[in-house]
Amino acid sequence: MTDTPIIMHEQQFQQLKLILGKLRLESFSRVVFLVDKNGQQIATHGDVGDLDTTSLASLAAGNVAATGGMARLIGEKEFPTLSHEGERESIHICIIGRVLLVVVFDERSSLGLIKLRVKQASRDLSALFEELERLSSERRDREEALFAEITDDDIDSLFN
Amino acid sequence: MTFINYASREINCKIVYYGPGLCGKTTNLQYIYDTTAPTAKGKLISLATETDRTLFFDFMPLELGTVRGFKTRFHLYTVPGQVFYDASRKLILKGVDGVVFVADSQDERMDANIESLYNLEENLQANGYDLSKIPYVLQLNKRDLPNVIPAEEMVSELRRKDEPVHEAIASKGNGVFDTLKSVAKQVLTELRKS
Q1: Do B194 and A9 touch (CB under 8 A)?
Q2: pTM (2 decimals)?
Q3: Across the interface, do B95 and A54 touch by the CB < 8 Å criterion?
């Protein structure tokens, strides 16, 4: 089945940023971001600098999709976490339902600490996304009206 | 799957360029990348082999402008065209909002076009989509080559519904933006209808 769109509102977005901020602080990581499984970046927190987070989001999703494909070939549902360790910077990815929590960290932290803190944050994020799903279906009717007002001229104007 | 962020007022959509090996999917993206203002695009990521064949996907984010106060961002992907990369193609179609099928107009590639189109229908179904219902455009590429099949013949063989058809020479940019506009319009129209 196809997924329903993720619709993010101000209040949930702020809650999300709080969770990511707390995770970043407690895990001593460089940057933390949330991506949907299709590669769309949802939220970022931390020292982004010149990091191309859009590309990183797309590649993280591709990475999870590819390893998930491998998992199914050997009879596993998925590999819920992925870690890539570099000389200076490392990446830890955790699958939480339909989203991916991506943590970039360096020698100021350790994989053990990251895994521990990510596990705690995963619970908060799962709860938040459950609430988001519930609110999305409740509000869908009202919000669809906004997009129903998009005219052909609006669309054409994008290409002029 | 469209991602609507009311907090940052953004709409994000995913468009996938599909087609047989060497039909010009990456060339379409490369042309869009080369001719778009730096402020409207991100990096073009190519996961390719050493011989520049797409291994997993190409990706580029493109910002088209604002609709009703919402920034519209399109994430453009290509799939690897070679037959044996089918598992990767299936993965990339996940969450797609619109598809461009790039057909190679050369006579000797017609069988490959047909095979790839069947493969697209199968892989869409595997992801829970129906080609007849999603935003879709057919591009007839490489129209400048000497051994091309007449456009009408290709259309009668490859057209699956009333989708827009664009003749193109992606290496020179002909038809590239027309194709993109066509599919982007359908995606936004779908959002309005949904």
Answers
A1: no
A2: 0.89
A3: no
